[in-house]
Amino acid sequence: MEDRLADLLKYFELEARTFQAGPLRHAGNYDGRDGLGYIHVQLNGCMRLESACHPAVEVDEPSLYFYMNPTHHRVIPLDDRVTMVCASLRFASGGENPIARALPDLVLIRLADTPTLEPVIKVLVQEAGEQHCGRQAVLNRLMEIVVIGVLRELMDQNILQTGMLAGLAHPKLHKAINAMHAEPGRNWNLESLASIAGMSRARFSSKFHEVVGTPPGLFLTQWRLNVAQALLRRGEPLQLVADATGYSSTSALTRAFVTQLGLPPKQWLKRELEATKSEPARTKV
User: Fold this and answer.
1) For the chain, how many structural domains are there in total?
2) Helices (runs of H) and strands (runs of E) counted in the chain
3) Residues 175 and 256 in one domain
4) How far apart are CA 109 and CA 157, in angstroms?
5) What is the pLDDT of residue 13?
6) CA distances from 55 to 41, 50, 84, 155, 260 (A)
7) What are the φ/ψ torsions at residue 224 (nearest 5 degrees)?
8) Measured by CB atoms within 10 angstroms of the end CB, which terminus of the chain is less buried, N or C?
9) What is the pTM of this model?
10) What is the CATH number of the domain that holds 224?
11) Which of 157, 129, 145 lies closest to 64, judged by CA?
12) How many C-beta atoms surround the C-beta of residue 198 within 10 A?
């Protein structure tokens, strides 16, 4: 099967920073205004999750839960057996990204339901309990692997009903989505995308909207702008960005930015860089 995450992670590299690895004695409060996502791997004990975006949840078995989108939430230990590994999450490209947009506010999965993650969790637990050289870097990388593993599980088990990841899990739609992800600068139209998916034009358009939640044309526009944002963050010149994302000129790209994001590219980039500089420092474990 095609790698359905390769092009997403090419432009939106995941970065995890572990700040908790061991017993959790006090409640943790996380402010969605920091612009970060969070993942919590609960290894023992009983926890309570609170957030305005979902009813309170009590978790009394090894589980992982993450808020890929910035979300105010609290994790509260309910006994003295709680052991957790927690990390903040961000994408190196900054800005809105399609991976976070494709996920619900809270993803909660029992570790028993994800046997493919067992080897990674085992190494994570071992590393968290020791003090080897490079421990912080190893924990960070392991948490990134855990998140990618969860995204894979969500697609393989067809857990999500709508959104981009649901589209990538679809046996036909994923072919067209992968094509757009791989070649955002190509002159795609409904006929060519439907042909790649092996569907009629009408059926493809209807099914795409139903599963992904947006029409194919809007999805392509959003993806092109997502890629443009990532390339601008990497310092690529505006003309190259326009060429790579299918816009006939820098003026056309600028119009798309203003229409969809409310700012021309250079002003958007300045705002994003300033926001990155103002991010609060995260405590290391």
Assistant:
1) 2
2) 12, 9
3) yes
4) 12
5) 84
6) 20, 7, 22, 25, 32
7) -60, -40
8) N
9) 0.86
10) 1.10.10.60
11) 145
12) 12
Task: Report pLDDT digits (tens) over 156-187.
Answer: 888 888 899 999 999 999 999 999 999 999 99
How many other CB atoms sit within 10 Å of the CB of residue 220? 21
Report the SS3 class of residue 51. strand
Residues 6 or more apart whose Cβ sits within 8 Å of residue 50: 56, 73, 74, 76
**Are residues 151 and 168 part of one domain?**
no
| Burial tier of 80 (Cβ tally within 10 Å: 0-12, 13-18, 19+) | exposed
Strand partners, 38: 67, 88
Question: Look-up: residue for tokens 């800005």?
Answer: 95
Q: Is-contact 103 165, C-beta < 8 A? A: yes
Residues 89-139 have pLDDT tens digits of 987 655 567 888 888 889 999 999 989 999 999 999 999 888 889 999 999
Does residue 119 share a domain with residue 188? no
Count of C-beta atoms within a 10 Å radius of residue 8? 25
What does the DSSP assignment read for 178-225? HHHHH-TTS---HHHHHHHHTS-HHHHHHHHHHHHSS-HHHHHHHHHH
Distance CA 209, CA 279 (A): 36
* Nearest residue to 82 via CA among 98, 59, 50, 54: 59
> Tell me, what DSSP letter sits at residue 254?
H
Element (H, E) at 177: helix 173-182
Which residue range(s) make up the domain with 138? 6-156
What Rg value do the Cα atoms of the chain yield, rounded?
Answer: 20
Do residues 13 and 92 make contact, with C-beta atoms less than 8 angstroms apart? yes
Calculate the dihedral angle through the C-alpha atoms of 272, 277, 278, 283, rounding to the nearest 10 degrees.
Answer: 130
Torsion angle of C-alpha atoms 230, 234, 239, 245, degrees rounded to 10 = -20
